[in-house]
Amino acid sequence: MSQSSVPFLPFVKPEIDEETIQGVVDVLRSGWITTGPQNQKFEAALSDYCGGRPVRTFNSGTATLEIGLRIAGVGAGDEVITTPASWVSTSNVIYEVGATPVFVDIDPATRNIDLDLLEKAITPRTKALIPVYLSGLPVDMDRLYEIARAHKLRVIEDAAQAFGATWRGERIGRLGDIVSFSFHANKNLTSIEGGALVLNNEEEAVLAQKYRLQGIVRTGFDGMDCELLGGKYNLTDVAARVGLGQLQHIERFTAQRKKLARAYFAGLEGGAAVKLGLGLPLADFENSNWHMFLVTLPLDRLSISRAEFMNHLKERGIGSGVHYPAIHLFSLYRARGFSEGMFPHAEHYGASTVTLPLFTQLSDSDVARVCQAVNEICEQYGK
Ligand SMILES: *Cc1c(COP(=O)(O)O)cnc(C)c1O
User: Fold this and answer.
1) In this structure, are residues 354 and 324 in contact, taking their beta carbons and an 8 Å threshold?
2) Per residue in 330-358, pLDDT tens?
């Protein structure tokens, strides 16, 4: 079965240009390799991208979410509403700051948090909301902020996957309350590892800086004070230089991803897999940045498991992934009272989703090859 003549397609692969690679070499030779001038440039460029709002870089998206919660004043006794269909860091950070995650099921069409259910889950203890823009598809931002305003709730947008996405033509990061981006290697814009917080004002930006580095404030030429319990979350200049190099290409990256997503629809719609019940993502070419192409397998109509399906793809030289198993079914969460059946749409999604290859250097014919493989496997093992 294995086709050695065709190259293996990973499900994701970053595109780093030669100028960026040379830029990293220059940083390494410059004598200043940790947080410094490249971070300042990166923060300024990100701020520009986000309509002039203050931006602070961090060494991960997880750190930005945690510090975003702290800046919003979330702590012990507070509830934070979020979705179980995300990377586990989205809700781990809620425990990290001493608060309690309150999960709300997803809308199966968007795979994002169901805003009707979200509104019903608000209690007097609710302090903040963490919506997740799964695969870069934003939630209905008008509705989200209508709810947040009506109930006086803070919002920390988990826009880890949404850099380059928009809402009604406006970039994610320009709108709303606190916005958290991740620049992990697999995200649409990468700094290898990293993240950024988009904030509301200078006061929050100063707080972000304190939380980012041990709560330290410089006083005068030779003095310093430690004002609060901060952590060690600063981004290196090597990483910032990579992020700066990526930022130049973000519009092209997003356009290419949209083009490839369209090729997926063309290759799958009306095919054997969809006829059997393969679930496609919402066909949104307005707002989404198409961070991933996530399908759901019709497991009740297949004689093979998801793992076997993924292995058949692998045998055909195609990588795939799972984003994500429902968070509330992980051991840590079960031990804290969550169980099967609580969020059926997220559970069904988490148990059946497969991430197909999607990255900027993929071609339409690569996508056609993936679609053909998906259709053939479904044809062969469909029942
Ligand atoms: C990647 C990701 C994070 C965490 O970002 P890191 O940079 O890996 O810490 C959080 N939430 C979502 C939805 C993500 O995709």
Assistant:
1) no
2) 999 999 999 999 999 999 999 999 999 99
